[in-house]
């Protein structure tokens, strides 16, 4: 079955740039979406179709892709950015299934 | 404003079934589809499947295909997810989310329900 691979954790100091990666064989052909989930809350969409921000999402969050890897970048990370981040995309091998990455816990301290 | 309000938590015994509801308001129910996602305690998000409110088409995760049914009731703007033959590893928070595509081609889940905790325990 198709998998998206993320690092379990990323840690940065306030004001530094955090980068969360997501790798998957189908990413050159399929869009990736990024969701932020804070403790005890429902997920929130922060990036759609690789690099687009929904309205209301802070500008320091950005997305990019290169080959089989997508990256969520948080520029000048703040304590309030601490959350779990999930990438989300679709298998391209003919299976119509969607998949979440395992999630990355971002710590800002 | 767009809202998805889910039913309350449930406690079920192994082998039983559960049906979680997701009542939509603030938009035209038939113009969007619904995706269901679950999250086991302390674990990541898991895509369960999708249903088109417009035509009832569904797409289920392979591991759940034999046990899950997603439906909608247009008259009450409510989506339902039924999971049968419950096991302990089905214990999770279940979320519904609004999906803008009519053919399950989008991962844009812009609005989510508050989640429903289903506990499976003997």
Characterise this structure:
The complex is a heterodimer of chains A (109) and B (122). Chain A has 109 residues and is mostly beta strands. Helix content of chain A is 0%, strand content 43%. Chain A has strands at 9-12, 18-23, 33-37, 44-47, 61-66, 69-74, 83-90, 98-100, 104-108. Chain A starts with 8 loop residues before the first strand and ends with a strand. Chain B has 122 residues and is mainly β. Chain B is built from no helices and eleven strands. In chain B, strand 4 (33-39) and strand 5 form a beta hairpin. Chain B is globular. Chain B starts with a strand and ends with a strand. The mean pLDDT of chain B is 96. The chains are: A mainly beta (109), B mainly beta (122). The A-B interface holds A 1, 31-33, 35, 37, 42-45, 48-49, 54, 84, 86, 88-90, 95-103 and B 35, 37, 44-47, 50, 59, 61-62, 95, 104, 107-110, 112-115.
| Greatest chain-chain contact | A-B, 27 and 20 residues
Give the overall shape of chain A. globular
- Residue fraction in strands of chain A: 35-45%
Number of strands of chain A: 9
- The succession of helices and strands of chain A, N to C, reads EEEEEEEEE
* Residues in helix, % of chain A: under 10%
Low-confidence stretches of chain B: none
Q: What amount of the residues of chain B lies in strands?
A: over 45%
Quickly describe the structure:
The complex is a heterodimer of chains A (109) and B (122). By secondary structure, chain A is mainly β.
Compile the SSE list and pairings.
The complex is a heterodimer of chains A (109) and B (122).
Chain A: E1 9-12, E2 18-23, E3 33-37, E4 44-47, E5 61-66, E6 69-74, E7 83-90, E8 98-100, E9 104-108
Chain B: E1 3-6, E2 10-12, E3 18-25, E4 33-39, E5 45-52, E6 58-60, E7 68-73, E8 78-83, E9 92-99, E10 111-112, E11 116-120
Q: Could you name the key traits of this structure?
A:
heterodimer, A: 109 residues, mainly beta, six-stranded mixed β-sheet, 0% helix, B: 122 residues, seven-stranded mixed β-sheet, globular
């Amino acid at each position: 079955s198709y998998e998206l691979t993320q690092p379990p954790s990323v840690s940065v100091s306030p004001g530094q740039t955090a980068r969360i990666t997501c790798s998957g064989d189908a990413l050159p052909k399929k869009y990736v979406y990024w969701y932020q989930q804070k403790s005890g809350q429902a997920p929130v969409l922060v990036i759609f179709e690789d690099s687009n921000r929904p309205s209301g999402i802070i500008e320091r969050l950005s997305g990019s892709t290169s080959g089989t890897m997508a990256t969520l970048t948080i520029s000048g990370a703040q304590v309030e950015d601490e959350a779990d981040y999930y990438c989300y995309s679709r298998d391209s091998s003919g299976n119509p299934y969607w998949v979440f990455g395992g999630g990355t816990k971002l710590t800002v301290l | 404003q767009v809202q998805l309000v889910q039913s309350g938590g449930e406690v079920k015994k192994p082998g039983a079934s559960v049906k979680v509801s997701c009542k939509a308001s603030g938009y035209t129910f038939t113009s969007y589809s619904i995706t269901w996602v679950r999250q086991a305690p302390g674990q990541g998000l898991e895509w369960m499947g999708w249903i088109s409110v417009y035509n009832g088409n569904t797409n289920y995760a392979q591991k759940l295909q034999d046990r899950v049914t997603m439906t909608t009731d247009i008259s009450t703007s409510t989506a339902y997810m039924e999971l049968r033959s419950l096991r302990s590893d089905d214990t999770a928070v279940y979320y519904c989310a609004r999906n803008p595509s009519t053919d399950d081609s989008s991962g844009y889940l812009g609005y989510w329900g508050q989640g429903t905790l289903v506990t499976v325990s003997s």
